Amino acid sequence: MNNQEYVVIVRYGELYLKGKNRYLFENALIKNIRNKLKDTNALVEKITGRIIISNIENNAQDIIERVQKVFGISSMSKALKLKTSMQSIKDYCSSIELNGSFKVEVKRADKSFPMISSELEKLLGKIILDNNDNLKVDVHNPEHIVNVDIRETGYTYISFEKIKTLGGMPVGTSGKGLLMLSGGIDSPVAGFLMAKRGLQVNAVYFHSHPYTSEQAKQKVKDLAQIIATYGGGLKLFIVPFTKIQEAIHLQCDNRYTITIMRRNMYRIAEKIALLNDYNCLITGENLAQVASQTVQGITCSNSVLTSLPMFRPLISFDKIETIELSKKMGAYDISILPYQDCCTVFVPKNPIIKPQVEQAQIEERKILDLDQLIDDAIKNVEILNFED
Ligand code: ATP
Ligand code: MG
């Protein structure tokens, strides 16, 4: 039949999308899907309540895999597109071959279609059943669901499988953030989770050449590229951090070096975020994981921030939960490569577990020209762009 075509039908969480912001969500989602498919011939169009990807030629699998990385989609299916008529739907259903158990689910967005959903489900179910000897109906736990989606456009979409997607909000609808990205397991996952809530995620990496290697830097770049594929592209700011690390190491009480190092990472991250009109900061910190991640340690870092919030999506995670997400997003194999990031180089023998803000300030004032060192670090930042 020449009026048949395969498309990908994209569904998004309709229920919580009532109201005036709906079009912003939809427009961002379409833009992000188009961006993902920009080097293909696929056409991405909105119809009421759905997004349809057509002209998929022989590329369906590749297109589905790419769109699976776009946040804001509740499910999608490869579907047959038919011109809506009772006859065309019945004809197609009589050609379906299935084994095992099944049910038909009809969604009738087109209220002019002459039969209500429940009646059509029975009718089509009977047609399919009559044509397949080894098939039975199971409405509770079927092996196959035949979805018949009759839209207002005059077309009906028939699909068999709902493909799992990531949910969340379209990237860009929540503003922009700056992720403190190390080469570890946690921070890439933190970036992934905030992109899931609609943030466009950029990243800052503090590099302490020659104490940390080029391989450690390359690892961060590779992780940045992975986050970019979920976050709609990414800017990576590589901050030369050696002079500040050395100054802290030489001039402050060594029990406070980690606290003060982290305070200065936060300070620089916030300055870079403000210079670039980003709206928030993100870190992979997790309560009680290491000595610097106690409530007091986090308080000491957080107290240097002047205006932006610091998001910590992993604060309550067990490591095993983080690892699961790291694998899911495809970062794990890179994160576990052995190259050290700068935190591990200057680690003192006895870091203070419960640092105090006042004491951190006293120690920090011992550093000559800290403001100048910070300004220089920001001036010499290396900026790399990663495409989606
Ligand atoms: P990760 O696995 O993300 O490295 P971690 O459990 O090893 O985290 P730390 O290394 O103490 O913990 O770092 C805590 C957080 O501080 C990291 O998640 C990251 O957000 C940030 N961070 C640490 N080192 C750097 C760095 N060199 N550059 C940028 N951010 C960093
Ligand atoms: Mg680390």
Could you characterize the architecture of this molecule?
By secondary structure, the protein is of the alpha/beta class. It has helices at about 20-35, 60-65, 85-95, 115-130, 185-195, 215-230, 240-250, 255-275, 295-300, 320-330, 330-335, 355-365, 370-380; strands at about 5-10, 45, 50-55, 75-85, 100-110, 135, 145-150, 155-160, 175-180, 200-205, 235-240, 280, 310, 380-385. The strands form 2 sheets. Strands 2-3-1-4-8-7-5-6 form an 8-stranded mixed beta sheet. The radius of gyration is 27 Å and the shape is elongated. The model has no long low-confidence stretch (mean pLDDT about 95). It binds adenosine-5'-triphosphate (ATP) and magnesium ion. Magnesium ion (MG) binds near residues 182, 184 and 341.
- Helix share bin: 25-40%
Helix count, DSSP H or I runs of 4 or more residues:
13
How would you write the strand order of the largest sheet? Answer: 2-3-1-4-8-7-5-6
Q: Which blocks of ≥5 consecutive residues have pLDDT under 50?
A: none
User: What class, by secondary structure content?
Assistant: alpha/beta
Shape: elongated
Ligands bound to this protein structure: adenosine-5'-triphosphate, magnesium ion
Order of helices and strands: EHEEHEHEHEEEEHEHEHHEHEHHHHE
Strand content: 15-25%
Helix-strand blueprint:
Blueprint: E1 5-11, H1 22-36, E2 43-47, E3 50-54, H2 60-67, E4 75-83, H3 86-94, E5 100-108, H4 117-130, E6 135-137, E7 144-150, E8 155-159, E9 176-180, H5 186-196, E10 200-207, H6 214-231, E11 234-240, H7 242-251, H8 257-275, E12 280-282, H9 295-302, E13 310-311, H10 319-329, H11 332-335, H12 357-364, H13 370-379, E14 382-386
Parallel strand pairs: 5-6, 5-7, 9-10, 9-12, 10-11, 12-13
Antiparallel strand pairs: 1-3, 1-4, 2-3, 4-8, 7-8, 11-14
Helix pairs in contact: 3-4, 5-6, 5-10, 7-8, 8-9
The structure holds adenosine-5'-triphosphate and magnesium ion.
